[in-house]
């Protein structure tokens, strides 16, 4: 059975209405992601939010499953998919390990702005590895909070007590990539689309 996240459920409508903060960086992320997708691919996106990115990428592949921990986010995503008439985009209220996602295998698993919101990054990467075909791609973009950004730990912890912030894992780009490699991947591309580690893009191939 899927679980849900009250923080993201409450934030869903506002999140959906918000504008992308750095559109050039977002477009670079999309362009680099598209380069790894083919028309025959079966794709899973985890932490899809309200499916805005899924709506752009789904037309490029054969089958696209978009999943999120927030039931409200998924409901909005379903509305948008119906309005767009994309029949092969499936929206699921599910997390990694949920039976709804199935065992795969997928050609690609995508996770944008997600891994820093997970308590066990390497464990999540291992779950992704198990869902992929040999040679399949794990493509992610992650906020890497290290150095002076570690000062945010205290205020975020306080906000979490009142339901005003989600869980955040603080790690450098080097630590992020070490977790991905340890889970059984070869990193084939990594860069910062915005010039900042706040959105570190990694394309990794399952070994």
Q: Could you characterize what this model shows?
A:
With 207 residues, the chain is α/β, with parallel strands linked by helices. The chain is built from 7 helices and 7 strands. The protein has helices spanning 6-17, 23-34, 52-57, 71-84, 121-131, 153-161, 173-182; strands at residues 42-46, 63-68, 89-93, 106-112, 132-142, 185-191, 200-206. The protein has a 7-stranded mixed sheet, sandwiched between helices. The protein is globular. The two termini are 30 Å apart. The model has no long low-confidence stretch (mean pLDDT 93).
Structural class: alpha/beta
What distance lies between the first and last C-alpha atoms, to the nearest angstrom?
30 Å
SSE ordering: HHEHEHEEHEHHEE
Shape: globular
Number of strands: 7
Computed CA radius of gyration, to the nearest angstrom: 16 Å
Keyword list:
7 helices; 23% strand; alpha/beta
Tell me briefly what this model is.
The chain is of the alpha/beta class and 207 residues long.
Topology:
Layout: H1 6-17, H2 23-34, E1 42-46, H3 52-57, E2 63-68, H4 71-84, E3 89-93, E4 106-112, H5 121-131, E5 132-142, H6 153-161, H7 173-182, E6 185-191, E7 200-206
Parallel strand pairs: 1-2, 1-4, 2-3, 4-5
Antiparallel strand pairs: 5-7, 6-7
Helix pairs in contact: 1-4, 5-7
């Amino acid at each position: 059975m899927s679980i849900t996240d009250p923080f993201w459920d409450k934030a869903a409508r506002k999140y959906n209405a918000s504008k992308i903060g750095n559109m050039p960086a977002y477009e670079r992320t999309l362009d680099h992601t598209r380069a790894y997708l083919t028309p025959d691919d079966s794709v899973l996106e985890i932490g899809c939010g309200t499916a805005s990115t899924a709506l752009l990428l789904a037309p490029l592949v054969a089958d696209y499953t978009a999943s999120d921990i927030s039931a409200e986010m998924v409901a909005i995503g379903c509305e948008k998919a119906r309005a767009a008439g994309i029949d092969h985009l499936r929206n699921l209220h599910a997390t990694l390990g949920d039976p709804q996602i199935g065992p795969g295998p997928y050609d690609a698993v995508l996770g944008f702005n997600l891994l820093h919101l997970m308590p066990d990054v390497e464990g999540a990467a291992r779950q992704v590895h198990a869902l992929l075909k040999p040679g399949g791609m794990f493509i992610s973009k992650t906020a890497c909070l290290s150095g002076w950004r570690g000062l945010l730990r205290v205020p975020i912890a306080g906000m979490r007590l009142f339901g005003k912030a989600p869980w955040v894992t603080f790690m450098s780009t080097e630590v992020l990539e070490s977790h991905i490699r340890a889970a059984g991947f070869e990193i084939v591309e990594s860069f910062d689309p915005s010039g900042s580690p706040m959105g570190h893009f990694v394309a990794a191939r399952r070994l």
